[in-house]
Amino acid sequence: SVSAAFWNHVRRLDLQDFPCGLGSWNKSRFDAHRSPCRSQPGLGADPAGQEEAVPLGEESPDALVEPLRDWHSPWALPPGCTPQDQHLREMAVLTPEILHGSNIFQVLRSLRIVGKGVEEVDEGLLQFQQLEELILSVNQISRITSAHLPRTLKVLELCCNAVVGLQDLCAQPPPELQHLGLGYNRLCGPLQNGYLTADFWPKLVSLDLSFNNFTDLLELVSQLSSLQKLRILLLQGNPLALIPTYRGFLVDSLPKLSILDDIRIGPDERHQFHGLVRQPEVIRSEARVVVSVGEIKGVSDPSACQQLEVGSEAPVITYSYYVTYEF
């Protein structure tokens, strides 16, 4: 589950061990008998100003943060960590009480769990009450229940999973979502239920549906046209992208779109395809495949056979072959 992968990752960060957390190296700074009015510094604060003098046997915040930032230090972050991980480590030095126990859920705004074999998006995510960005790419998620997603989400990335439908995701979608990444999954049409409309995603700005199995361009466009805030769209890698007029039809159908398949839409291109939306007959649901055979191995070459002499009574032997292609 996502929660299990998260706690496994947190354990790798050693947020409670030197130089992080509470210990003999910073005990006096967090003594319970000190004034409760002491301010809690953020990452941008000057930790050196917290105390006039560092007690004997303890380390200043500057001295504790330094080994975390030095990549040659034995306390440096392990490979594969993110800037968010560095943020947590430094917070564990400056204000370790904030990250104690369940308090960590109130701090995180971004959660990135990539390539960890996650199969389930569990309800434990609801504890992240401030979460705005959730990246779960390159996992094994086949279905995602929107009831388990924090309502504060603005970015949801599910690229390279095994998602086959949008029904569960659209049951209670996060109302503030601005980016939805579903590239490299197993989504396909038809889309009669209208899961890609403004009814479910009223604030969506960016949508990635690349490398799925969408085939009905007209039906897809009819739904995407309701997304009034949509500016970035990725559809490359779908069968419908093989239609010759694919890009022009989308450019003319979605006048507010700024970027299609990572290519910016300029005024010249929009003028070039103007009026194409009124010609749906150019969208054909058929394709022609031309196969050119360069070489066949394992059969006799007719040109190598000796030609029979004129007037020869030898029987003529012919060969025929049955060849199949699998796409």
Q: Tell me, what is the CATH class of the largest domain?
A: Alpha Beta
Question: Mean pLDDT, as a whole number?
Answer: 83
CATH topology of the largest domain: Leucine-rich repeat, LRR (right-handed beta-alpha superhelix)
Count of DSSP helices? 7
Distance between the termini: 36 Å
Structure write-up:
With 327 residues, this protein is α/β, with parallel strands linked by helices. The chain has two domains: 1-24 and 69-107, no CATH class; 109-278, Ribonuclease Inhibitor (Leucine-rich repeat, LRR (right-handed beta-alpha superhelix)). The protein has seven helices and eight strands, in the order H-H-H-H-E-E-E-E-E-H-E-H-E-E-H. An eight-stranded mixed sheet has the order 1-2-3-4-5-6-7-8, with helices on one face. Strand 5, helix 5 and strand 6 (232-234) form a beta-alpha-beta unit. Helix 2 (61-69) packs antiparallel against helix 3. The longest helix has 12 residues, at 2-13. The radius of gyration is 30 Å and the shape is elongated. It starts with a helix and ends in a 55-residue tail after the last helix.
TL;DR of this structure?
The chain has helices spanning 2-13, 61-69, 83-94, 104-107, 217-224, 246-253, 267-272, and strands spanning 110-112, 133-135, 155-157, 179-181, 206-208, 232-234, 259-260, 263-264.
